[in-house]
Write a structure and sequence with these properties.
The protein is of the alpha+beta class. It has nine helices and six strands. The longest helix has 16 residues.
Length: 239
């Protein structure tokens, strides 16, 4: 079974949804048979790498609300994150552009470290208040994830994996992704948003059963004439 996840590293519900999925998989007996693939999605492709505005100030500007209302929004998300063991620090988190982070994750995938780097990037942004748009920060995180620092630096200084990121984003538009997180199971079922873990679990179980069930034929008639290893049923001749 394959689960593809479109997400962004500055999306709080992407991190929460990731935890909900992980909780569901812990309850799924065949979890070792599930492959997770992360897909790139930028909530704001035009976001600046560096800004002097806080998360709350950006939210206030984006939604046309007061700074207090924006803070209430982040407080609410912080409480939701805490229910799955995540510690969000919106007061000190650094808004930035995530394009390079997505490119670096594509590089990490070629080294079998996609999952590790994805978790580190989310944790770095939401809990450690790291600047994940900064190349030096990204190289440090890549190294912590077990990637080569020089190779990571070279990826970030060039344009490698740009087309991979753009392909994910194009695919998202084609399948109608309106927001993230967005989960696709075996290219048959979609789950939008950070749904509760029981929703993920029931969906995974449903797909697993459908993909692995053995179809049996239902009898419509019995006791008809037939042949088997012992011979054929020959009806008595009519006199």
């Amino acid at each position: 079974m394959k689960i593809e996840i479109w997400s962004d590293y500055v999306c709080p519900f992407c991190y929460i949804g990731k935890r909900h999925l992980e909780e569901a998989l812990q309850q799924f007996p065949e979890r070792d048979q599930v492959e997770i693939a992360f897909k790139s999605f930028e909530l704001d492709p035009d976001a600046a790498v560096d800004t002097d505005m806080s998360i709350q100030e950006l939210l206030s500007k984006k939604y046309g609300t007061s700074l207090e209302q924006a803070k209430n929004m982040t407080d609410s998300m912080t409480k939701q994150a805490a229910t799955v063991g995540l510690d969000f620090r919106f007061d000190t988190s650094i808004p930035t552009n995530t394009f390079d982070a997505h490119r670096l994750t594509k590089y990490a995938k070629t080294k079998g470290k996609e999952s590790e780097l994805t978790e580190m990037l989310l944790h770095a942004h939401f809990t450690l208040s790291k600047h994940i748009g900064n190349k030096e920060t990204l190289v440090g995180l890549a190294e912590q994830a077990g990637l080569d620092a020089e190779e990571s630096q070279a990826v970030l200084e060039g344009d490698e994996f740009t087309q991979d990121v753009r392909a994910d984003e194009k695919e998202a538009r084609q399948i109608g992704v309106q927001g993230v997180p967005f989960f696709v199971i075996n290219r048959k079922y979609a789950i939008s948003g950070a749904q509760p873990s029981d929703v993920f679990l029931s969906s995974i179980q449903k797909v697993w059963e459908e993909e692995n069930q053995t179809d049996s034929l239902q009898p419509l008639g019995t006791d008809g004439m037939a042949c088997d290893e012992n011979g054929c049923d020959v009806p008595p001749s009519k006199s």
